[in-house]
Design brief:
The complex is a heterodimer. Chain A is an alpha/beta fold. Chain A is built from 26 helices and 24 strands. In chain A, the strands form four sheets. Chain A has an eight-stranded mixed sheet with strand order 6-7-8-3-9-10-12-11, sandwiched between helices. An eight-stranded mixed sheet of chain A has the order 18-19-20-15-21-22-24-23, with helices on both faces. Chain A has a four-stranded antiparallel sheet with strand order 2-1-4-5. In chain A, α5 packs across α7. Chain B is an all-alpha fold. Classes of the chains: A alpha/beta, B mainly alpha. Chains A and B meet through α16, β18 and α18 of A and α8 and α9 of B.
Chain lengths: 677, 294
């Protein structure tokens, strides 16, 4: 019999609406966290997963209150304790690691001091013992040279290192239970894989129980023993990680897994229709009824209970789970593979483009030139054909968004020429650009919350390009707006809504509609799906693809997510520190031989499958500046040859697959080395 | 055209909603009541004042409050009640229009600086800083003694000096939205600066600027009364609270009523405006006093 650390019984947490009704955010949660176990809680935004994690610490957000139930830590109910008692438990017995370590560390205190503070609070060690303990903790989280690290300030560390410090601080009180709220969400793919590996090691070493909250099934698959899937404030599935991710017996999990793009299965994933219901809007029946493919009449009237299935050691909340048990559809999943009509006409040509963020000196301003030997982005040569989808891939700081901005005219280029339709040179200054080229190139941004003016209605938002470029007015304008919204599957009644009244997916659809209203030739997509939930992401990707097929638009698609890029693009350009590493048809880039950096990136991709582990080949050091000489990737390259990489810019080499690699290592050698592993 | 009407109706509904929210909290309700009371008083008081405000009668000097003279009489035998209810008229008018001017020039300059940034912003803000370092009352005295104390001088002068602070607020509020993607998106589409200010920035900074303007109003009221107190605001015999306090302050020890009535008038109006401005800010969702979430 396993000993439990925490037991949650019938927990319901909610708030009082303005009309005086009690609305539940969490509904009747029952679960147990056992000793030494890592439990992943997964769900889309608004599913109540963070509220549940906070309740496990005995904390209920302001405005919410416990309606019923208890949260037992050993034999004490955390939700009934007073602050004094909770202080003794928090940090010592239960610790939490927040999402953004950069913001949770105090910026003007040294790392060592901050860990020392945690130790003072949670242990009774003396000064010298504490100093030793700090080194020990920093060692434990695999930070290099702990002594010097302790003397640094948070801003001197990279995102991954900051997150490691947060882990060290949480471990300071040797807690029995560690709560992690989306601890890797803001990190780069390679860093994320390293942090997850660290968490696995710590779980093994210390025997701490962990609760890992995330929306990312890939990350959950790597760390968890058990997975809890939440939907609309309820646990819908709770069981061992393998059975849940490989053979889900709840339709929601099933749909969720199908909507994740995977490297192993190229093509656009199927999207789940609809969105999560608002809290309090479900009166009767199953909360997933509206989106469920398997629902019948019974599901509409009665709400299913959490049922235990002995064979699978799984709890499930579904009437029809039996029909799903033997469905192996997940393995024979079909995806829509994309086929774009690519014309041979070149639509955009970047030659030798360099971009610098360096400040111009006075004399340079006079002669309108920038002297910067080591610009942020250098020597970019890309041709884009009409109707093509080109993806720019790289980690943060790789210059992919910078290139987009220059194409849009928002950022001046230092050198190089951007040509539109072969012969029309685009000025890198927006004000000097011809309005018809401005219309031809439209942008879609990452975060629709920021890209839509909160004080404009949907009608006003979509009207802007129509008024600006086509001078439409009155009736004609309104008709056109309705027409454009219809293209992105938004009905007439959205016209008067404000962005805050829309869901994330709907907002992004409005942003897409605004871009398409200008009838552009090229759309620049800057991480358009990374702020969205997976089921919504699939829908937006599908929408973009359909629109492309209708209008023949060319996309330049920037993303850090290799699986998404694989799903939607024809051609991929891999960037590191503002330099091109590899470019070629996407189906070939994902095959070996490839540039060592592409290899590192591909190895770090997390698939929602516990049996596919990421391959960590390089250290996750973050370089702030590109090297002045030689190959851009020399600092982290696992296959570095020696001085030649440090002194000489590598040449372009073509592989038999048709992609070009910029590396000193001979193609055949690369192929041999990479296929060996 | 139908569209425009609809929009007007929407704006009207929004204003009504804001006022409703303001009145739903006791402090907002009290503030609004005081403010509305003062405004109504200022508009209607000439219709029902019991006595002539400039009628001097040496035989009635410094009479204490009585059923005949509710607030007593002053050192020249004038009725204090009459002068008190009339005394807010000039102050309210001058400061109201002064605040409007402050709001307009401060707001537009602030937004402009926030939008263009760079050198122009630097230069303008240093000039504003330089003005902020000059004691405004000295500068005001200079202006007033050169140009006279007519309302046509006072309104723009007060408006100028109280608009400097609004420049900073408007600039900061603009900086908040300027980095947002919807502005970048409007720029990439090729909208002109004016169109960006009008359509994208103004709706997002309007609330902050209006709340700041409301706060400035109460400060300006105090400033205007100080000027009158020093003899540079309203010229006698026009009744004014600042002037009344100044005239009666020497006799405070034995004729408290002559100084108390204008003080109550002035401070209640300032408190009323402050409470209203706070409630206004809360109703618009700009809470100046909420604590950071724990």
């Amino acid at each position: 019999m396993k000993t439990s650390v925490q037991q949650i019984n019938n927990l319901t947490i909610g708030f009082q609406s303005q009309k005086g009704q009690q609305i539940s955010i969490l509904k009747n949660i029952n679960t147990t966290i056992n000793k030494g176990e890592t439990v992943g809680i997964v769900g889309e935004s608004g599913s109540g997963k963070s509220t549940l994690a906070l309740a496990m610490m005995g904390y209920v957000k302001h405005g919410l209150f416990t309606i019923s139930g208890e949260c037992m830590f050993h034999s004490n109910n955390l939700l009934e304790m007073n602050n004094k008692e909770l202080e003794n438990i928090r940090g010592r017995k239960i610790a939490m690691i927040p999402q953004n370590a950069g913001q949770s560390l105090t910026p003007n205190l040294k790392i060592g001091y901050q860990i020392d503070e945690a130790l003072k609070l949670h242990t009774d060690l003396k000064k010298t013992d504490r100093d030793n303990k700090i080194s020990e903790l920093l060692n434990k989280v695999r930070l290099p040279s702990p002594e010097t690290m302790a003397q640094r300030y948070p801003h001197e560390l990279s995102g991954g290192q900051q997150q490691r410090v947060a882990v060290a601080m949480a471990l300071a009180g040797s807690p029995e239970l560690l709560l992690l709220d989306e601890p890797t969400t803001g990190l780069d793919v390679t860093t994320q894989a390293h942090v997850l590996e660290l968490l696995n090691l710590i779980a093994k070493d210390t025997g701490t129980s962990m609760v890992y909250v995330s929306h990312d099934l890939g990350a959950i698959a790597q760390v968890s023993d058990r997975v809890i899937v939440m939907y609309s404030g309820e646990i819908v599935l709770d069981g061992p990680v393998r059975s849940i991710l490989k053979n889900p017996i709840h339709p929601y999990t099933f749909g969720l897994l199908k909507s994740i793009p995977k490297l192993t299965l190229p093509g656009l994933p199927n999207s789940m229709s609809g969105s999560q219901p608002q809290p309090g809007s479900i009166k009767e029946g199953c909360s997933f009824y509206d989106r469920c493919e398997f629902a019948d009449k019974n599901c509409k009237i009665n709400s299913p209970e959490l049922e235990y299935i002995n064979d699978l050691n799984t709890h499930v909340r579904c009437f029809r789970h039996k029909e799903l048990i033997n469905q192996n559809e997940l393995n024979s999943q079909t995806v829509k593979s994309i086929e774009n009509k690519i014309l041979k006409n070149e639509i955009l040509d970047l030659s030798n483009v360099s971009i610098s963020y360096a400040k111009q000196k006075f004399i340079e301003q006079l002669i309108n030139k920038i002297e910067d030997k080591n610009p942020t982005v250098k020597d970019i040569d890309i041709n884009i054909n009409k109707g093509e989808t080109l993806a720019l891939v790289g980690e943060s700081g790789s210059g992919k968004s910078t290139i987009l901005k220059s194409i849009a005219g928002l950022l001046k280029t230092k050198d190089g020429i951007i040509k539109f339709e072969k012969d029309k040179e685009l000025s890198s200054d927006l004000r000097k650009r011809d309005p018809k080229f401005l219309r031809a190139i439209q942008l879609i941004f990452q975060n629709p919350d920021e890209s839509l003016n909160p004080n404009h209605t949907v009608e006003e938002i979509v009207a802007q390009p129509l008024k600006l470029y086509f001078g439409l007015k009155g009736h004609e304008l309104k008709e056109k707006i309705i027409n454009v919204l219809d293209k992105v599957r938004l009905g007439k009644f959205y016209l008067t809504r404000y962005p805050r009244q829309l869901s994330g997916g709907e907002k992004q659809r409005v942003a897409v509609a605004r871009a398409f209203a200008a009838k552009p030739d090229i759309i620049l997509c800057d991480e358009v799906t990374s702020a969205l939930d997976v089921s919504v992401q699939a829908a937006v990707l599908n929408l973009l693809q359909e629109l492309k097929e209708d209008f023949g638009t060319t996309y330049i698609f920037v993303s850090h997510d290799l699986a998404v890029v694989r799903a939607i693009s024809d051609r991929v350009a891999v960037l590191y520190q503002g330099r091109l590493c590899e470019i070629g048809p996407s189906k070939n880039v994902y095959k070996f031989p490839s540039h060592p950096y592409t290899e590192v990136l591909l190895g770090a991709v997390l698939e929602p499958d516990p049996d596919i582990k990421p391959k960590l080949v390089a250290e996750d050091i973050v370089e702030e500046k590109p090297p002045e000489n030689g190959c851009s990737f020399q600092g982290r390259c696992p296959r570095i040859l020696g001085d030649i990489c440090k002194n000489e810019v590598p040449p372009w080499q073509s592989t038999e697959n048709g992609n070009s690699i910029r590396c000193h290592i001979k193609i055949d050698d690369l192929k041999n080395q990479q296929t060996l592993n | 055209m139908k569209n425009k009407k609809e929009k007007q109706k929407n704006t009207f509904q929004k204003i009504l909603e804001v006022i409703k929210t303001m009145a739903s909290k006791p402090s907002g309700l009290i503030g609004l009541t005081i403010l509305i009371f003062h405004v109504i008083l200022a508009i209607t008081s000439p219709l029902y004042v019991p006595y002539d405000y400039k009628a001097i009668d040496p035989s009635l000097m410094l009479n204490p409050p009585s059923s005949e003279f509710w607030f007593g009489t002053d050192s020249l035998g004038r009725d204090v009640f009459t002068r008190t209810i009339l005394g807010g008229r000039t102050a309210l008018t001058v400061t109201f229009f002064g605040s409007l001017i402050a709001l307009l020039w401060g707001g537009s300059l602030g937004i402009f600086c926030g939008l263009v940034g760079g050198k122009i912003d630097d230069v303008v803000m240093r000039i504003i800083d330089a003005f902020l370092s000059i004691p405004w009352i000295l500068a005001m005295l200079l202006i007033v003694s050169l140009l006279g104390t007519t309302t046509l001088v006072l309104i723009p002068a007060l408006g100028f000096f109280y608009g400097k602070g609004i420049v900073r607020v408007a600039r900061a509020a603009t900086h908040d939205v300027i980095a947002k993607d919807f502005i970048v998106s409007a720029r990439a589409r090729g909208h002109s600066n004016i169109s960006i200010i009008w359509n994208e920035i103004l709706p997002n900074v309007r609330d902050a600027i209006m709340v700041e303007g409301a706060m400035r109003w109460s400060w300006m009221l105090l400033g205007f009364s100080s000027l009158s107190f020093l003899g540079f605001g309203v010229s006698p015999p026009t009744p004014d609270w600042g002037l009344m306090i100044s005239n009666a302050r020497g006799l405070m020890s034995f004729a408290y009523w002559a100084v108390l009535a204008p003080i109550v008038g002035l401070s209640s109006l300032i408190i009323g405006i402050n409470l209203t401005a706070d409630a206004f800010a809360k109703a618009l969702g700009i809470d100046r006093s909420t604590k950071a979430p724990v």
